[in-house]
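Hi all, posting the design record for the shared folder.

TITLE: backbone redesign
STEP: 1 of 1
STRUCTURE INPUT:
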């Protein structure tokens, strides 16, 4: 199928299909991290109730669980639409690698989603029907189910970034899974999961702190605000530190398997050893990029021009130029067509095997055969450069923020605050904390911009460009559904915010 694909699909269809998927993914990610973050908050709060049997903690747990439930429902709706788009807008992609990509999504739906759906019912309706221990377990298992669900979805995404555990079958014209373990336990998937989950905990923590600050400003539910703020800030500080550590590991993985993404993130055109990490253009941390990419201040990092023109590392490793990869990709596509024609014509085995040998020796560069110009291999540099810096900057800010919140909440050290505590601060302090909630979302979305824009033009890294993966649709159809989804998702977001604000204004029954 792919070797016969006529690459004259309307450019508008490609662009609008990408825009529609980006729209759905961005809206979906507004709901998911809050679900994962609040799962930890409500689990800790209910654990305090189980330990103390103080009704204050029970009502506090119910309050955070209500906010969790509102957000959970919205996340499910957008997630379902996101998965359907693989079949509607990206049918060539789904056909080409559906056996691999569909496996983790099937596991997510059958195991994780049913797990969280079952225990979320017990969590909301089982307070008077099950024991305190069983209810506590249900609350944690709801959060665990959501986290496992995220694991399998991130496994699928990580495979698109670093395709492993598969082989191309020239007879079926599909990539087929040869090792589920390699797909499920890919080092890239593990790093992506750890970084994504810890960054989601930050969202839940800053949301918790922001709600608590609103109560303190209004001088309502002061005990809940103080106690929950301590939990939120503690979770947030741990999460922010872990996000920094897992981010470093993710950076090393990107340097190894997606060097063009790393070069775009740094706007690095000419690489080398002892590379500094740019804070902004013209200001850098000496050796920072080499350390991030290789854990070695002397480490070699290729730039965009090196990757396009080919390079040799100081230890003798040679990487072919983009032109050579494109030529070898075209050779692979031609060999595939010749192989299938030879088999259809009943040609001698020697001819069939010769074409198969040519295909196998060039299959690594198969996707490059669809690239018309090497400039297409360069992701949007400005987007990656600034999105990466916003993400890192926000992360560093939150490390300091949560540390200060903990210090003020516990009045430690007291000589810095005297008699003033967190309940008697001027109103602008509370508004500042509340304003950081959207900033956390901006940082989180910037992380996904780097992940997805950085691997362009690939739907699957080095295997399938976006213009080959898209469905052959009329652009007008995609434009119509784009704006329908925009209206739908915006309405859903507005409804959620409205319901959340009403529930927060109402407050807990304590």
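Okay, here is what came back for every position:
SEQUENCE:
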């Amino acid at each position: 199928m792919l070797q016969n694909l006529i690459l004259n699909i309307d450019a508008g269809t490609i662009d609008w299909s990408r825009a529609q998927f980006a729209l759905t993914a961005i809206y979906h990610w507004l709901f998911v991290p809050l679900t994962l973050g609040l799962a930890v908050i409500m689990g800790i709060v209910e654990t305090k109730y189980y330990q103390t049997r103080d009704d204050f903690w029970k009502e506090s747990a119910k309050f955070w669980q209500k906010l969790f439930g509102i957000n959970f429902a919205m996340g499910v709706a957008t997630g379902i639409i996101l998965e359907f788009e693989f079949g509607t807008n990206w049918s060539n992609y789904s056909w080409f690698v559906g056996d691999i990509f569909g496996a983790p999504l099937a596991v997510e739906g059958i195991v994780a989603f049913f797990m969280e759906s079952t225990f979320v019912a017990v969590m909301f309706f089982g307070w008077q029907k099950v024991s305190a221990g069983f209810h506590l377990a249900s609350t944690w298992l709801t959060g665990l189910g959501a986290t496992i669900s995220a694991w399998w979805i991130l496994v699928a995404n990580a495979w698109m970034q670093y395709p492993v555990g598969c082989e191309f079958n020239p007879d079926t014209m599909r990539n087929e899974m040869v090792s589920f373990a390699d797909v499920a336990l890919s080092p890239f998937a593990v790093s992506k999961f750890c970084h994504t989950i810890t960054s989601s905990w930050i969202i839940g923590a800053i949301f918790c702190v922001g709600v608590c600050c609103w109560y303190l400003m209004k001088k309502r539910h002061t005990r809940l605000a103080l106690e929950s703020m301590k939990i939120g800030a503690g979770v947030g500080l741990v999460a922010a530190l872990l996000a920094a550590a897992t981010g470093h590991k993710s950076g090393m993985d990107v340097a190894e398997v997606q060097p063009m993404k790393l070069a775009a993130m740094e706007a690095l055109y000419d690489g080398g050893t002892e590379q500094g990490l740019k804070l902004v253009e013209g200001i850098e941390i000496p050796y920072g990029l080499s350390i991030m990419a290789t854990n070695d201040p002397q480490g070699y990092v290729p730039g965009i021009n090196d990757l396009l023109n080919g390079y040799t590392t100081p230890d003798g490793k040679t990487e072919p130029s983009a032109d050579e990869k494109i030529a070898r990709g075209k050779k692979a596509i031609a060999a595939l067509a010749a192989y299938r024609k030879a088999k259809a014509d009943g040609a001698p085995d020697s001819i069939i095997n010769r074409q198969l040998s040519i295909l196998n020796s060039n299959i690594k560069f198969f996707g490059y055969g669809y690239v018309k110009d090497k400039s297409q291999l360069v992701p949007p540099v400005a987007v990656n450069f600034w999105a990466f810096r916003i993400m890192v900057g926000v992360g560093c800010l939150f490390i300091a923020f949560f540390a200060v919140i903990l210090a003020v909440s516990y009045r430690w050290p007291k000589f810095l605050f005297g008699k003033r505590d967190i309940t008697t601060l001027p109103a602008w302090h509370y508004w500042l904390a509340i304003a950081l909630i959207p900033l956390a979302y901006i940082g989180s979305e910037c992380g996904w911009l780097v992940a997805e824009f950085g691997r362009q033009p690939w739907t699957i890294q080095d295997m399938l460009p976006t213009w080959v993966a898209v469905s052959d649709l009329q652009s007008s159809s995609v434009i119509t559904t784009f704006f329908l989804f925009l209206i739908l998702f915006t309405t859903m977001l507005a409804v959620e915010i409205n319901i959340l604000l009403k529930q927060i204004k109402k407050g807990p029954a304590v």
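COMMENT: Residues 408 and 416 are 9 Å apart (CA to CA).
Let me know if anyone wants the other runs.
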